[in-house]
Amino acid sequence: MAAVIAAQRPHYVLWLPVLLGAGICAYFSLKFEPSWVGALAVLLAPALAVLWQWRRARAGGSVALLLLFGLALAFGAGFAAGKVRTEMVRGPVLEKQMRFANVTGTIRSLELLESGRGSRAVLDDLSIEEIASEKTPRRIRMTISKDEGLRPGQRIRVLGGLNPPSAPVAPGSFDFQRYAYFRELGAMGFAYKAPEILSEQKGGFYQGLENYRLMLAQAAKEHVGERETGVVIALLTGERAAMSEDLWDDVRIAGLAHIIAISGMNIGMAAGAAFFLSRLLMALFPRFALYHPIKSYAAVIAFIAAFAYALIVGMSVPTFRALIMTGLFLMAIGLNRSPFSMRLAAVSAGALLLFYPDILLGASFQMSFAAVIGLIWFYDVTRDWWVEAYTKAGWLQRAMIYLAGVCLTTILATIVTAPFSLYHFQQVATYGVAANFIVVPLASFIIMPLAILVYFLAPLGLADWPLAGMAWGVDVMLDIARIVAGWPHAVVHWPVWSGAALGIMTFGMLFMLLWAGRSRWLGLLPLAVGMVMVVVATPPDILISSTGKLWAARMDSDRMMISSRVADRFTAEVWTQESGLPEGSTEKIPNEGLYQGENGMVSCDADACRMEMDGAKVAFVNQPAALATDCAWADVVVARMPVEKECAAGAVIDRFDVWRNGSVAIWVRDGEEPVIRSVRDLRGDRPWAMNNGR
Question: Burial of 541 by CB count in 10 Å (0-12 exposed, 13-18 middle, 19+ buried)?
Answer without folding.
Answer: buried
